Amino acid sequence: MTGASPTQRALRPDEVAYLLRASLGSPVQVRDSGPLDGGGYATVWWALLDDDRRVVLKLAPPTGTPLLRYERGLCAAEARYFHLVAERAPQVPVPEVLHHGTDPAYGEWLVTAMLPGRSLVDLAESGVDDGPARYDLGVALAALHQVTGERFGYDDDRPGGSTWRAAFTAMLDALLADATDWNVRLPVTPARLHALVQRHAAVLDEVHRPALLHFDCWDGNVLAAPDPDGRWRLRGLVDGERFLYGDPLLDLVSPWLFRRVEEEPEHPLLRGYQATAAEPLLLDASARRRLGLYRLHLYLLMTVEMPSRGMTVRTHPGRHTRLAGLLDEEIAALAAN
Predict the structure, then answer these.
(1) Mean pLDDT, rounded, of the chain
(2) Coil, strand or helix at 101
(3) Considering the entire predicted model, what is its pTM?
(4) What contacts 122, CB < 8 A, 6 or more positions away?
(5) Maximum Cα–Cα distance for the chain, whole Å?
(6) CB–CB of 299/319 below 8 Å?
(7) Predicted confidence band of residue 51 (pLDDT cuts 50, 70, 90)
(8) Residues of 33-69 as b/e, b for ≥16 C-beta within 10 angstroms?
(9) Best CA proximity match to 44, nearest among 99, 110, 94
């Protein structure tokens, strides 16, 4: 497969088989395999082994590939995340890590068990009722958020801080530096962005505990399958490499991509979260301002990452225009409060 993104690489079935033997032992044989679509960062293949196991191989970008600052070491981060969730929140369905390895020719990769189910993107296109799966996602997020980290932000040597305000500011500063490196034109200047964060710093300081966050819970990363009664329930939460520690509200942005969670108070995800969360989830005035900052961060990230994924204003005009409009909306709302 040759991905459109410069961070992805071409793979052949025999190379997939080689990496799986290196991961799981030389007796392993691959009966069938193929690429998995849906992401623009790593190269991902599924494989059916001769012992009937289905596994997923995720190959990191080649060494030396230009990446955003927070993306450095994501393959190892994903392995850490899945191990952590399995240990601290075992009720959350994440893939079992089977191997995390490196090879001089192929670089870094991860092999996990393949979870059953279809993504919520697929379900939306088929018109089935995905409400129960979204309820389950709320339950899963509430469980994840009970895990507490040692600091706010990303782990390892990526942007973080001793307070949520410091970590969030560092995350934004990293994206602004990436925008400069990649010559990305933004609808907001660094000075304007810093002024907005400073204006709302008090609500960021209300976050005192670094909760474990998935961050990337858009519909493509949520898997569901029918139960015996035919209801579609959560079966997997995948692509955990972008995890960080911070405000649980940050995890309520990606599931409502291009929408606002506070405008859908009866959503199944919120009902599942509220039913099982250790602390009440209040979408009050403070929460709404924080959500505005978090949407600003996400849309900024999605804009800045475009050239690193081989996307330009010319090749993806609709994406760029939509994100610019959303950024303008969030900036205006934050400036008015």
Answers:
(1) 95
(2) strand
(3) 0.95
(4) none
(5) 64
(6) no
(7) very high
(8) bebbeebbbbbbbebebeeeeebbbbbbbeeeeebbb
(9) 110
CB 144 within 8 A of CB 252: no
60: which DSSP letter?
A: P
* pLDDT tens readout for residues 237-261: 999 999 999 999 999 999 999 999 9
Residue 37 pLDDT: 83
113 close to 96: Cβ distance less than 8 angstroms:
yes
Residue 74 buriedness (CB in 10 A; 0-12 / 13-18 / 19+): buried
Kindly state the average pLDDT of the residues 19-34. 96
Whole-angstrom Cα distance, residue 122 to residue 130? 10
* Residue entry with tokens 């390895």: 101
Long-range CB contacts (within 8 A, 24+) of 87-90: 88/147, 88/212, 89/140, 89/143, 89/144, 89/146, 89/147, 89/212
- Hunting for tokens 């994440």 — which residue is that? 94
- Say how many C-beta atoms besides its own lie within 10 A of residue 31's C-beta: 11
User: Residue 315: its pLDDT value, please?
Assistant: 87
Select from 120, 88, 86 the least CA-distant residue to 218: 120
- Tell me the pLDDT tens digit for each residue of 93-135: 999 999 999 999 999 999 999 999 999 999 998 889 999 999 9
Helix (H, G, I), strand (E, B) or coil at 59: strand
Gap between the Cα atoms of 180 and 164, Å rounded:
24
The residue count for the chain: 337
